[in-house]
Write a structure and sequence with these properties.
Number of strands: 10
Number of helices: 11
Helix content: 40-55%
Shape: elongated
CATH superfamily of the largest domain: PAS domain
Largest sheet: 5 strands, antiparallel
CATH architecture of the largest domain: 2-Layer Sandwich
Order of helices and strands: HHEEHHHEEEHEEHHHEEEHH
Radius of gyration: 51 Å
């Protein structure tokens, strides 16, 4: 960098020397045109003038030093930005094309030591086919700023496609150019990586939206987003529910405690899981198995809640139907058990009577047996008909 530490001292010394020469030589000139009795006045005047020059020089010195210090601090800041820049940077001499300064990133990317690069020219980091292109580039006057794509060569022989930004500067009292190199291979790889990640995220989002029922609310439970599946199953459009809560969809299936427990769970940062019965826009019921997660910022404050659900309406309807069927069967079994017991008791009693009579059966007893058997058969038929109808 330009050495400017001695500038304040030089300014003050030059100013002092010129001032003193003028004061003391001007006396002789003055005596040629003024009387001798004014010598004492001239001496006083010389002293005052000398004092003025010394004070002025001192003031100029400290002012210059103050501003130079500020300039030096700025220069140091810029040098740190140069040295620690994440992109390769260097300064080269316009005339000789030799490297004058390089930053750490340039050393890492190109594989040379600083001493090696400072002995090289910018032609030395080009492959043969680029050197002629570079010579042509330098044939005309260079603008203060230029930009272009170039092929560079590292110490290991690897070719790098870089975008060069070049600025005209004055460095170490000579015309120079400051260069920033952007590695386009790395940029292309990053773009490719981001493209793949975006593609994967798009596919993930598509799959998630097609396979699950999604809704997002703010921290107060006001709806911000519902996906297509939610619209389909509920019958509501996004614009109809945006900014509202889920009161519109609530059924009478769940108690206040059910929802209090849900809110307490998610406000504690835990995942709530459960089955919720909702009412669609057309009045029909639908069931969702729902998981609700709090989305927090970097400070841990809840910003939103995301609800991921699956439709379990068919399963719940099948369960309800099976439960109703079981209740009906239980009712039939209880009612018919009493009807079966009557003819069965009669048959058992008649058989006991036959046993007591040593196996002799009277016509009257046979009639009772036939009658009880018919009653039992009718009851069984009725049970069968009820069972088949359900």
């Amino acid at each position: 960098m330009v050495k400017i530490k001695n500038i304040p001292r030089k300014i003050a010394l030059i100013y002092t020397a010129l001032g003193l020469v003028w004061i003391f030589t001007s006396d002789y000139l003055t005596q040629l045109v003024v009387p001798d009795n004014l010598n004492d006045a001239f001496k006083i005047q010389n002293f005052k003038g000398s004092l003025f020059v010394l004070l002025s020089a001192t003031l100029i010195y400290f002012l210059a030093k103050h501003y130079i210090n500020k300039f030096t601090e700025k220069e140091a800041d810029y040098f740190m930005l140069f040295k620690n820049n994440p992109n390769p940077m260097w300064i080269y001499d316009v005339e000789s094309k030799r490297f004058l300064e390089v930053n750490e990133t340039a050393l890492q990317v190109y594989g040379y030591t600083k001493d090696e690069l400072l002995k090289m020219t910018i032609f030395d980091i080009r492959p043969p086919q680029e050197k002629e292109k570079l010579k042509t580039h330098f044939k005309g006057p260079l603008p203060n700023f230029s930009r272009g794509e170039w092929l560079h060569l590292t110490k290991s022989g690897q070719e790098l496609l870089v975008e060069i930004s070049s600025f005209a500067i004055n460095f170490q009292n000579r015309p120079a150019r400051l260069v920033i190199a952007y590695n386009l291979h790395t940029s292309a790889e990053n773009i490719k990586k981001l493209t793949i990640e975006n593609f994967e995220l798009s596919n993930f989002r598509f799959a998630l939206e097609e396979a699950t029922i999604l809704s997002i609310t703010d921290a107060e439970g006001r709806i911000e987003f519902i996906n297509n599946l939610f619209e389909r199953i509920s019958g509501y459009k996004q614009e109809e529910l945006h900014g509202r809560d889920f009161t519109e969809l609530k059924s009478k299936e769940h108690s206040a405690y059910f929802f209090d427990d849900m809110w307490q769970t998610i406000r504690n940062g835990e995942i709530w899981r459960g089955e919720i019965k909702n009412i669609a826009k057309d009045g029909s019921a639908f069931w969702l198995y729902t998981q609700i997660v709090a989305l927090k910022d970097h400070l841990g404050n809840t910003q939103r809640y995301i609800s991921i659900s699956s439709d379990i309406t068919s399963r719940k309807m099948a369960e309800e139907s099976l439960e109703r069927h079981n209740r009906q069967l239980q009712s039939i079994a209880w009612a018919n058990s009493h009807l079966i017991r009557k003819p069965l008791s009669s048959i058992l009693g008649l058989l006991e009577l036959i046993k007591l009579n040593d196996g002799l059966v009277s016509p009257q007893t046979l009639d009772y047996l036939k009658k009880s058997g018919k009653q039992l058969d009718e009851v069984i038929k009725e049970i069968n008909s009820h069972s088949s109808s359900h």
